[in-house]
UniProtKB/TrEMBL annotation:
GO terms of molecular function: ATP binding
Region spans: Disordered: 247-266, 483-503
UniProt xrefs under Pfam families: DUF87
Source species of the chain: Bradyrhizobium jicamae
Protein's recorded name: ATP-binding protein
Helicase HerA central domain span: 6-79
InterPro entries: ATPase_Atu1862_pred, HerA-like, HerA_central, P-loop_NTPase
Lineage of the organism: Bacteria, Pseudomonadati, Pseudomonadota, Alphaproteobacteria, Hyphomicrobiales
Coiled-coil segments: none
Keywords recorded for this protein, A-Z: ATP-binding, Nucleotide-binding
Length: 503
C-alpha cells in the first residue's frame, strides 16, 4: 500500500506529496538557515504521518512537545533521566510502538549529545522482533553529528556521532527512517549527510552552501542564487519520495504550534522616566548567603604535587644507571599490579581515567612512585594486559608487528585485536562474544559481533564459521588462525582452554 502525505503545494499550483513508504527506505535531509521554516516543515511531516507510522523526535529546543496533546506523543524530559534510563526508554518505546518526543531543552551541548546517543542507541539495539517502521526526526542535527570537534569532550562526540551514523547508515534494515534537519551542510558530518536520498533545501545565503545545495539537487551552478530568494516555508525538493526532478514547493499549515513562538513587535510600556528610575535603580534585595559546599579533595593531585615539591627540594645528584635485573623486576611488579586491578569483576567496564588513578595509588603503595608510567604508557600496558600479553611478550619482535597492525584501529579496539592475535598465534579457540565484549568494555554481545565485523572491514582479519557454527578467525598476511571456538560460550575460556586475559 502506498501512503502519500500532503506537504503543501508546488510553485506551479499542484499538490506536493511525499511517499511515506519510500521515505522509510531512503531517508530525508532538510537544510535551511535559521528562520527558513525547517521546524515548520518537520511539524507538517510529523502531523501528516502520525496516523500511519510510529515517530520519535530528538528535540533540542523543546519545540515539538505540543504534539503530545493533539497526537498522543509521549514527552520524555531528558534532564530527569540517566543515560541508562533513556536507553531502556528507547528500547521500550520501540517495542510498544509509542511515539515519543525526547525533550533536551535545558541541557548543555555535551549532555544533549550523551542523552540523545543513549536514546537512539536504545531504538537501534532493540531485538529483531520489534523492528517496526519508525520515523526518527532529529532537529538541529549539526549538534549531534558535528563535522568538526567543538567544545564538548571527545567521548561525548564519539557517542553521539556513532548513534547518528547508525541511524542514517544502518537504520534502514531495522525499520528506522532518519529525517535530519540542519542549518548548514558544512556543519554536518559528511558520512551522516551522505546517506540521505531525499532533499528539501530552504533559504540560504552563503555561496558555498548555495553551490552545495545546487549540486545535491542536480541544478546548474548559475541556478544556485535561487536559494537566496526563497521565502520562509519555501523549499526545493528532490528524491524518490518527493520528485524525480527538482521542484519548488511551499509547506502547508500545521494543526499545532511550537511552544516557543517567534518574537513579535509590541509597543513599549508607558511608564515615566522617574518610575523607570525607581524600579531599575532600586536597591538590590539582600543576598541569601548559603554555605558553600566544599569540593571533594583531589587526593591524587595532592600526592603528585607533594612528590614534585619533594623532588625540587632535593639536591641534584648524578643519575645512577639502572641494571637489567632492576628493570625486569620493575616490569614484573607493574604487571602484577595491573593484573590485580583487571582481576576485579567490574574492571572491564570502568573508564580509563578511573583505572589509571587506582593504578597510580597502588604503585605508590608498592614503593614505585618515582617510576609510575604516564597515561599514554598505561594505555599501552592496559591494551596488552587485556590481550593476555605480559610486558616481556609484548616486546617480542613478532608482537611488535602485531602492534603496528593494531595501530590503525581506535585505542579501545586494539586490545580485542591483540587478544584474538594471541589466540591465533597459539592455536587456541577463538574467544567467545562474552570475552570480546569484556575486553572491549561493554555488556552487549551484539556490539562485540559488530566490532569483529569492523575489524574485518579494515582488512586485518577474516572470520569464518565451520559446520558446527564455531567461529574461526584468521589474521591477514600473518596467516595465524584460531582454532574453532563457540561464539556463544557464556564465560571466557580458562588458560587451559586458551583464552585467559591474565598476563
Amino acid at each position: 500500500m502506498t501512503v502519500a502525505i500532503e506537504m503543501g503545494h508546488t510553485t506551479a499550483g499542484g499538490s506536493a506529496t511525499l511517499d511515506l513508504e519510500e521515505l522509510l527506505a531512503t531517508r530525508l535531509l532538510v537544510q535551511g538557515n535559521s528562520g527558513s521554516g525547517k521546524s515548520h516543515l518537520l511539524r507538517r511531516l510529523l502531523e501528516q504521518s502520525a496516523p500511519w507510522v510510529q515517530q520519535t523526535i530528538v528535540d533540542p529546543e523543546g519545540d515539538f512537545v505540543t504534539l503530545a496533546e493533539r497526537f498522543g506523543h509521549l514527552v520524555i524530559d531528558a534532564e530527569d533521566h540517566t543515560e541508562r534510563g533513556l536507553q531502556v526508554a528507547g528500547e521500550r518505546a520501540r517495542s510498544h510502538r509509542v511515539s515519543t518526543v525526547l525533550n533536551l531543552e535545558g541541557l548543555d551541548a555535551e549532555n544533549q549529545m550523551r542523552r540523545a546517543a543513549a536514546f537512539l542507541g536504545g531504538l537501534f539495539e532493540v531485538t529483531r522482533d520489534h523492528w517496526y517502521p519508525m520515523i526518527v526526526v532529529v532537529d538541529e542535527a549539526q549538534i549531534f553529528a558535528p563535522a568538526v570537534a567543538g567544545e564538548v569532550s571527545d567521548e561525548a562526540r564519539k557517542l553521539s556521532l556513532g548513534a547518528m551514523t547508525n541511524l542514517m547508515c544502518r537504520g534502514r534494515k531495522r525499520g528506522l527512517a532518519g529525517v535530519i534537519a540542519t542549518q548548514r551542510l558544512a556543519k554536518l558530518a559528511k558520512n551522516v549527510a551522505a546517506e540521505a536520498s531525499n532533499f528539501l533545501m530552504g533559504r540560504t545565503f552563503l555561496d558555498i552552501d548555495m553551490a552545495r545545495a545546487a549540486d545535491l539537487l542536480g541544478m546548474e551552478r548559475r541556478q544556485a542564487d535561487a536559494f537566496r530568494d526563497l521565502e520562509r516555508g519555501q523549499f526545493m525538493a528532490l528524491g524518490p519520495a518527493l520528485s524525480r526532478r527538482p521542484v519548488g514547493l511551499r509547506i502547508g499549515p500545521t494543526e499545532t504550534e511550537p511552544r516557543n513562538a517567534p518574537p513579535r513587535l509590541m509597543p513599549l510600556p508607558g511608564a515615566t522616566l522617574e518610575d523607570a528610575r525607581a524600579i531599575i535603580l532600586a536597591a538590590p534585595p539582600p543576598e541569601n548567603i548559603r554555605p558553600q559546599r566544599r569540593p571533594a579533595p583531589d587526593l591524587l593531585g595532592q600526592l603528585m604535587a607533594a612528590k614534585s615539591a619533594e623532588l625540587e627540594m632535593r639536591p641534584e645528584a648524578e643519575e645512577q644507571p639502572v641494571s637489567a635485573e632492576e628493570l625486569a623486576e620493575r616490569r614484573e611488579r607493574l604487571d602484577r599490579i595491573l593484573c590485580a586491578i583487571l582481576a576485579e569483576p567490574d574492571a572491564g567496564f570502568r573508564a580509563l581515567g578511573v583505572l589509571y588513578q587506582e593504578f597510580v595509588v597502588r604503585c605508590r603503595i608498592e614503593g614505585l612512585g618515582s617510576s609510575v608510567p604516564d597515561l599514554g604508557e598505561f594505555r599501552r600496558m592496559l591494551t596488552h594486559a587485556r590481550a593476555g600479553l605480559a610486558t616481556d611478550i609484548a616486546q617480542d619482535d613478532t608482537w611488535q608487528d602485531v602492534s603496528v597492525r593494531a595501530a590503525i584501529l581506535p585505542d579501545d579496539m586494539q586490545g580485542v585485536f591483540m587478544m584474538i592475535a594471541r589466540a591465533a598465534k597459539q592455536g587456541w579457540p577463538c574467544p567467545s562474544d562474552a570475552a570480546i565484549a569484556r575486553a572491549y568494555g561493554t555488556h552487549s554481545f551484539r556490539r562485540a559481533r559488530r566490532l569483529l565485523t569492523y575489524i574485518e572491514e579494515q582488512g586485518l582479519i577474516v572470520c569464518q564459521l565451520d559446520g558446527a557454527g564455531r567461529r574461526i578467525v584468521t589474521l591477514v598476511e600473518l596467516a595465524w588462525a584460531t582454532a574453532p571456538g563457540d561464539p556463544n560460550a557464556e564465560e571466557p575460556t580458562a588458560e587451559s582452554g586458551h583464552g585467559s586475559p591474565t598476563p
